[in-house]
Every structure is written in structure tokens, then in C-alpha cells.
């Protein structure tokens, strides 16, 4: 097995674990973390697909790499926002207000 196959199998495992976590867990924090795991698997799949084209004798395409880096930054920002909203909801529930 070469490295592209190993990374492809790892990406499929990450996507599967993330999807399982999103569908089965009821806790919001676990869903957020599972969604991040799913996103990491998708980024890895995209990187593997871009690498396979480079393995055929072509130079590596910088566009998929730029899209992956941008996606990681956006995923980090979305995770930060989701956790901040989750903390705010928890704070409102402790105050007893339902506004």
C-alpha cells in the first residue's frame, strides 16, 4: 500500500466516525466535535484527491491546497462561534430566562 491509499482510508474512517457522532450523540458539544471530525476527514479526502493528480507525473496543483487552508480557517471560526453560542445558551438557561 502506498501513502495515498493509507491517507484515503484514514480520511474515510474520519468521515465515518464524524458522521456516526453527528447522528447518534444528543449532546450539542459532542455534535460540534463530531462535525469537526467529519470536516477534517473531508479536508483529507480533498487533499488525497489533489495528491493523486500530482502522483500521475503532474506538478502539484496549488488551488486545492489553498482551498483546504481556507476551509480549515473557516471551520475554526465556525467552531468558535458554535461554542460561544452554546455557552451563551447555557448561561441563559441558568438565569431562568427564556427570552
TrEMBL record:
Keywords: Cell membrane, Membrane, Oxidoreductase, Transmembrane, Transmembrane helix. The keyword S-adenosyl-L-methionine does not apply. InterPro entries: CPA3_antiporter_subunitC, NUOK/Mnh_C1-like. GO terms for molecular function: oxidoreductase activity. It is a multi-pass membrane protein. Its EC number is 1.6.5.11. The keyword Cell membrane applies. The chain crosses the membrane at residues 6-23, 35-54, 66-87. It is found in: Cell membrane. It comes from the Bacteria. Belongs to the CPA3 antiporters (TC 2.A.63) subunit C family. This is NADH-quinone oxidoreductase subunit K.
Amino acid at each position: 500500500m502506498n501513502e495515498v491509499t493509507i491517507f484515503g482510508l484514514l480520511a474515510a474512517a474520519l468521515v465515518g466516525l464524524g458522521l456516526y457522532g453527528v447522528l447518534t450523540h444528543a449532546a450539542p458539544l459532542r455534535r460540534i466535535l463530531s462535525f469537526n471530525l467529519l470536516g477534517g476527514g473531508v479536508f483529507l479526502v480533498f487533499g488525497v484527491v489533489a495528491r493523486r493528480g500530482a502522483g500521475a507525473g503532474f506538478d502539484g496543483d496549488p488551488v486545492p491546497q489553498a482551498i483546504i487552508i481556507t476551509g480549515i480557517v473557516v471551520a475554526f471560526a465556525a467552531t468558535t462561534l458554535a461554542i460561544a453560542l452554546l455557552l451563551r445558551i447555557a448561561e441563559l438557561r441558568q438565569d431562568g430566562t427564556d427570552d
